[in-house]
Amino acid sequence: MNPIIIIILVAAGLIGWIFIKPKLKELRRDKIRSQPFPKIWREILRQNVPYFYSMPSDLQLQLKQHILVFLSEKAFFGFEGVKINDEVRVTIAAQACLLLLNRKTDYYPKLKSIYVYPAAFITKHQSADSAGVLQNHHRVLSGESWDLGKVVLSWKDTHQGGLVFNDGHNVVIHEFAHQLDQETGAANGAPFVSYKKQKSWSQVLSKEFELLQKQAAKGEETLLDHYGATNPAEFFAVASEVFFERPAAMLRQHQALYRQLQSFYQVNPAIW
């Protein structure tokens, strides 16, 4: 066969696959979403994520369908004695999938693996000082989001976050907000928003970030954790925690911020 014809056929096949692959993936996900939600998983939600039962029934159904897909696509690994079972997987998935409701989603496409430690874990990082000498730094964390396909979580903090859903702190929401942010590149507090919404998003979040920085510098008590003043990426993650966990307070104290997050997440938890 003529080499040119072979090249044309191969190119046509590749182009066809590019168009067909997303459709096949969505068909597979539709099939998964149509499966019954296991009874034991419903009991895990009742025990570990009671917040689920305060949500509107249509969102409960959506969340269960998202959990089914999420757990079919993501790998879990336990460390330091953590055994990965349905309780661990469903508890994490239920909180992570809250961020996907009511909007088109590709289920954290960069994420492949979730690492679970029993409690807070120590991470090691290197940085160069002004003389170029590498310095080792150790941090104790309850969660960490990597843009290379990994989220690391403390099971103790994950479990507590599901049970206590009104304190404005939730490590799963925090780290998966970073995953949304990282879908557009490095985490910078600018997840994907439509072009017509970008200006208002940038203006409101920049203003609120600067306000939190000033309040944190003065040691003022704030609704948003001062950790959100670290950088725009952490501000978006912290604001996401408060949006879902203390929505009424955010709506009162930071209405413009609440409305931006409501538009982004396409839910209104203040009325649940």
How does this model look, in words?
The protein is of the alpha/beta class and 272 residues long. The chain folds into two domains: 9-125 and 134-185, Cyclin A, domain 1 (Orthogonal Bundle); 188-272, Collagenase (Catalytic Domain). Helices cover 54% and strands 12% of the residues. It is built from ten helices and six strands, in the order αααβαβββββαααααα. The protein has helices at 3-33, 39-48, 57-73, 86-96, 155-163, 171-182, 195-218, 232-245, 247-253, 255-265; strands at residues 75-78, 113-117, 121-128, 134-141, 143-146, 150-154. A four-stranded mixed β-sheet has the order 1-2-6-5. Strand 1, helix 4 (86-96) and strand 2 form a beta-alpha-beta unit. Helix 8 (232-245) crosses helix 9 and helix 9 (247-253) crosses helix 10. The longest helix has 31 residues, at 3-33. It is globular and about 70 Å long. It starts with a helix and ends in a 7-residue tail after the last helix. The mean pLDDT is 90.
